[in-house]
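pls design
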């Protein structure tokens, strides 16, 4: 891609990103350690001081003729772990390219980030790929955050790739015991059913037996229920809700009893002593299952 000479000392940048150096006017060449597939152009002021321009605007400076060229760190942002409602662990890897490298993480609600935290470890050296991490707290639940790993050494700063995660969302707590009448009659109106407030709930979802009507209180911890004629026995149930979804449900079995029929009186006759007598041809004074709804 590029060729540059100062006297008998020269450098050539190959298509695969390597920089070869000669001190013998090109008779022999050597390959100093350089990052493959990153460097594209070279320029030198003298046999010691030079620069190489790589992809993504990376500029490398040497003061020893390019043997070896000092390199900025290689940084990779990895997937976040331990993601909870208000905390998470940010992860990344660092190759310091044999220069002491300071490592941080940037994070925030957008790709402009806004928050910076030092990684663990905070400084990396050597040429091995080293895992780094940072625990962050004070996050908003059910919220997407962007983050990246950043490394800086004497050769420059490398920003890792942007990644994101969404914090967890806490569901409402368990619904407690429902309090209210378990035996009612057709025609009972305004029966009250209530529970203690559900932790984390911003709303309440009640259900009643088929045919029953919630008169008031839906979406609150207490409701009134009307039981008109022909209501079926069944469950009064409730669960808490919030932006994250529904919580667990609580149920109360309610038995609905019918009101007894009015007696049908039919004339039978008159006793010899002149007293009129009658009998009930139909009617029920006991109600269903013996429950008194008279």
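designed seq:
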């Amino acid at each position: 891609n590029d060729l540059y000479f100062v006297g008998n000392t020269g450098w050539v940048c190959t298509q695969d990103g390597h920089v070869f150096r000669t001190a013998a006017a090109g008779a022999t060449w050597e390959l100093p350690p350089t990052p493959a597939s990153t460097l594209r152009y070279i320029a030198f002021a003298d046999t010691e001081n030079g620069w190489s321009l790589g992809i993504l605007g990376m500029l490398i400076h040497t003061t020893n003729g390019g043997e070896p060229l000092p390199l900025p760190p290689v940084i990779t942002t990895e997937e976040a772990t331990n993601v909870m409602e208000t905390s998470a662990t940010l992860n990344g890897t660092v190759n310091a390219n044999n220069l002491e490298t300071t490592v941080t993480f940037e994070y925030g609600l957008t790709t402009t980030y806004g928050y910076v935290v030092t990684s663990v470890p905070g400084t990396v050296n050597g040429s091995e790929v080293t895992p780094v991490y940072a625990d962050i707290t004070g996050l908003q639940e059910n919220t997407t955050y962007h983050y990246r790993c950043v490394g800086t050494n004497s050769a420059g700063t490398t920003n890792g790739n942007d990644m994101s995660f969404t914090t967890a969302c806490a569901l409402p707590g368990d619904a407690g015991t429902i309090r209210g009448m378990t035996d009612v009659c057709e025609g009972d109106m305004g029966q009250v059913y209530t529970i203690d407030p559900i932790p984390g709930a911003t709303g309440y979802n009640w259900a009643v037996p088929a045919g029953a009507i919630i008169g008031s209180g839906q979406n609150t911890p207490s409701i009134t229920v009307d039981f008109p004629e022909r209501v079926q026995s069944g469950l009064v149930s409730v669960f808490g809700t919030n932006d994250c979804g529904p919580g667990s449900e609580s149920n109360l079995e309610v038995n609905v009893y019918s009101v007894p029929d009015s007696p049908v009186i039919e004339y039978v006759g008159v006793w010899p002593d002149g007293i009129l007598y009658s009998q009930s041809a139909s009617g029920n004074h006991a109600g269903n299952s013996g429950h008194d709804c008279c």
